[in-house]
Amino acid sequence: QLQLLESGPGLVKPSDTLSLTCSVSGASISGSYWSWIRQPPGKGLEWIGYIHSSGTTHYNPSLNTRVTLSLDTSKNQFSLKLTSVTAADTAVYHCARGSPVADTWAQGVMVTVSS
Amino acid sequence: EIVMTQSPATLSASPGERATLSCRASQSINNHLAWYQQKPGLGPRLLIYGASTRATGISARFSGSGSGTEFTLTISSLQSDDFAVYYCQQYKDWPPTFGQGTKVEIK
């Protein structure tokens, strides 16, 4: 059974880089698309971007200049880096399999941007 | 960016009742629509894609319909496990965008 689990700091300072990793178990990351989606408190869901196991990436234009997705097939993990964060980046960050439809989601991790 | 609008924001219903949730797109998305269910503290669960195709393991109590700009998710007979927030999502254009959600609560 496919399971995904995010890990990373729950608190990031303004202007710093937010870094999260999604560990995949129960399936190989090879051959699939992997996504990051976030949900600010009290707001809707926002698709950050996806990475294919081939390394192809596609980002939301609203975040394009600040986002980098990468993957580590040896560890069966994929990662998110978001630079120059502000309070507006405070959200629950979910990793998921699939794009543009996500068929399996992780629980999500709350990341707060604050000094 | 395509804007998705869901109604109502909250739907109060009793177990056993039929629930009808609506989703409207700001422009035609053909049938490129998915529905998700989210419970507190969990990630969303895919229910429907292609506007009407149930995802693997999803109960036949859930059905989706519509095309173009108007879509509906119907839960035929609400069970206690169905009380949650439901989101629609378009994937015709990049980036995929979600509605603000409909909360289905116990009446």
**Oligomeric organization of the protein chains:** heterodimer
Gross morphology of chain A is globular
Helix content of chain B: under 10%
**What structural class do helix, strand and pairing data of chain B support?**
mainly beta
Q: Largest interface, counted with CB-CB under 8 A?
A: A-B, 20 and 21 residues
Please provide a written account of the structure.
The complex is a heterodimer of chains A (115) and B (107). Chain A has 115 residues and is mostly beta strands. In chain A, 0% of the residues lie in helices and 50% in strands. Chain A is built from no helices and 11 strands. Chain A has strands at 3-7, 11-12, 18-25, 33-39, 46-52, 57-59, 67-72, 77-82, 91-97, 104-105, 109-113. In chain A, the strands form 2 sheets. In chain A, strands 2, 4, 5, 6, 9, 10 and 11 form a 7-stranded mixed beta sheet that branches. Chain A has a 4-stranded antiparallel beta sheet with strand order 1-3-8-7, with no helix packed on it. By secondary structure, chain B is mainly β. Chain B is 0% helix and 50% strand. Chain B is built from no helices and 11 strands. Chain B has strands spanning 4-7, 10-13, 19-25, 33-38, 45-49, 53-54, 62-67, 70-75, 85-90, 97-98, 102-106. In chain B, strands 2, 4, 5, 6, 9, 10 and 11 form a 7-stranded mixed beta sheet that branches. A 4-stranded antiparallel beta sheet of chain B has the order 1-3-8-7, with no helix packed on it. In chain B, strand 4 (33-38) and strand 5 form a beta hairpin. The relative contact order of chain B is 0.34. The mean pLDDT of chain B is 97.
